[in-house]
Sequence to fold (379 residues):
Amino acid sequence: MNENELFQAALGLLPPWLVSRCTFDESAGRLDIHLDFPRGGVFPCPVCAAPCKAYDTDPLTWRHLNFFQHQAFLHARTPRVECARCGIHRVAVPWARPDSGFTLLFEAMVLMLAKSMPVLAVARFVNEHDTLVWRIVTHYVDAARAKADHSSVTQVGLDETAARRGQDYVSLFVDLEQRKVLFATPGKDAATVAAFAADLQAHGGDPEAVTEVSADKLVNDAVDKVRRLERLDHPELAGSRYVWLKNPENLTAKQGEKFDTLDVVHSHLKTARAYQIRLAFQDLFNQPAENAKAFLDKWYFWATHCRIPAIIDAAKSIRRHQDGILRWFTSGINNGILEGINSLVQAAKAKARGYRSERNLVTIIYLIAGKLDLACQPT
Ligand SMILES: [Zn+2]
Fold:
């Protein structure tokens, strides 16, 4: 076996690909492996898989796993094929995904490292810029999330974690049965719940089935409905949407001014009454377990006697989901799960140190606490 055959076998290359030559530069500390295919080599069309001859080629380079302590690179003139049916396309090479400058094995190693050490440390370890490491991690996390199936999710807990400087927040929606983060997003207001509901639906889940979180959303939506109707006769309600959907402590300065101008606390507007009923509902989740049922009964009585149809509808709907909502309080298991997730998230934050953007933090949270199926295997 000569060195070309040795590397060909070690790379697991299949025809028509072969190793044509290798160069090792000891002083530069790098191994370069050149791949090629024989004249007339045939490749499957990347669209329809019909066998096609090469039409032209582009010289491409990929960084591969180190060769002992030396960096290793693959080079190949990569063909485009002209398929009679599909036109001209670049063929897929089996050792890398399209448009990546790294091989699949290199990327798999980066992902494995990123699970257990900070991305900046991974970048230093593999001697690449950290933005390239982030790009790899983001690609695989996004791809795994895109095909995640949330159709069996029924119990969701909501938690928040402070991001940079403790001022920005990331909201976490946790599957309490599978004990994993389903959805993470910057912010902690009503809009994050709506974003979660949309994301859950996009992954085959049913927001209606998710009682704790959707109950909140149900009441929020009812308040918004009341405001939209009442605004027709009360122009002072214009531009106040988020005043009613957020909690007082989360209002921006401008929303806070609106809150004061509307004199929300003393207002006789229906929207203000609906809002008070919403705040009271949220207080349910601060009750000790033994009070929860009585609290919910009292709230239900108030809500169904407020003479605001949208709120009465929401209250009746919550009554139908009552068992699921009260399950939230049983045995304190839920809080334990959230605490477990929270310690994973703290670890994720440490690993995302210098994470450049909240999106990167969210990516690492998914990587560590999302139990994703990261399909990063050479085909
Ligand atoms: Zn084709």
